[in-house]
Amino acid sequence: MHRSPVQGRPLHPLHAILLAFPLPLFLGALLADVAYWRTYHVQWTNFASWLIAGALFFGGFALLWALISLIRSRPPRRRHAALYFMALLATWVVGIFSALVHGKDAFAVMPEALYLSAAVVLLALVASWLGYAGARAERVA
């Protein structure tokens, strides 16, 4: 079996598990924001806040792992590792701003919370895509 120099290794299983959390948790926060926008039941902003906190918690560990992987990566794989790290960092930073907005009074969060939640979901999707891009099945020939 020949492995191309750009493909590299797939994610470590623990790293893959940590990376699996931010996207669905941020997506849940976006859905809670949409529910709040439609109903104005305050509990939806509480749900969104907790989902964002969970996404930031697991995303922080995935970000730390991505930084270590970037430092340890060899030149052919370094560009991909840097893109993945930057996407995950952007996700985490926008997630922090989203958490700060969600920390305001429930009636003061709209429409910023909705916009930030949508942005962080897109960033989390990109980061997940880049993170799992190296986890390809190898050809059997």
UniProtKB/TrEMBL annotation:
<dbReference type="InterPro" id="IPR016923">
    <property type="entry name" value="UCP029509"/>
</dbReference>
<feature type="domain" description="DUF2231">
    <location>
        <begin position="12"/>
        <end position="133"/>
    </location>
</feature>
<dbReference type="Pfam" id="PF09990">
    <property type="entry name" value="DUF2231"/>
</dbReference>
<dbReference type="InterPro" id="IPR019251">
    <property type="entry name" value="DUF2231_TM"/>
</dbReference>
<feature type="transmembrane region" description="Helical">
    <location>
        <begin position="113"/>
        <end position="135"/>
    </location>
</feature>
<feature type="transmembrane region" description="Helical">
    <location>
        <begin position="48"/>
        <end position="70"/>
    </location>
</feature>
<feature type="transmembrane region" description="Helical">
    <location>
        <begin position="82"/>
        <end position="101"/>
    </location>
</feature>
<keyword id="KW-0472">Membrane</keyword>
<keyword id="KW-1133">Transmembrane helix</keyword>
<keyword id="KW-0812">Transmembrane</keyword>
<protein>
    <recommendedName>
        <fullName>DUF2231 domain-containing protein</fullName>
    </recommendedName>
</protein>
